[in-house]
Structure formats: C-alpha cells, structure tokens
Amino acid sequence: MSQEITVDFSEQIAKVQTKIERLESLIYYVKNQKNALEHYKNNDVLLTDKVGLNLSGVAQCSFNASVATLIPLLEQNIEYNTALINELAKELGIEVE
Asked: Which InterPro entries match (predicted)?
C-alpha cells in the first residue's frame, strides 16, 4: 500500500524570496552609493558643499552633510553593505566574485 507524503515548502520559499529581495535592494543601493562617491571625488564639488543622501543597511536614513563628511560615511556604508551582500549571497548559495 503506497502512502502519500505532503511537504509544504511555502515558509522556506517565502524566507528565500525575502532574502533575494533584500539582496537586490542592497545591490541597488551600493551601486547608487558608488556612483555618488565617484561623483563627489572626481568632480568639481567643494568639500564644504552641503549635499543630501539616503543611506541604507540595517536601517535607512537620509541627511544633509558637507562633502568632506559624506565621503568617509559613503565609503563605510558601501563596505558594510557589501559585507551584507556577500553574507546574503552565501546564505542563498550564490558565488560572489
């Protein structure tokens, strides 16, 4: 007599989907932050100019700051988010170059 086995993967699928969405979001933010950093470093922007920027990671925030203050914050945020990207990718079984 054969028995039917039912397995519900919906919870695991939802968790993986949430991680994928977070990964996509972090990649988007890091790309934009790298573009902003490159712009501030390579263009005629005065270090005393005030600019606004949205940062993300565990918590999102936005603020206005001088470019001189913003550059190290962007660098740190990019590094932190890149570590999160690598961690999420590893959890999902994705190899990162």
From this structure: DUF1359
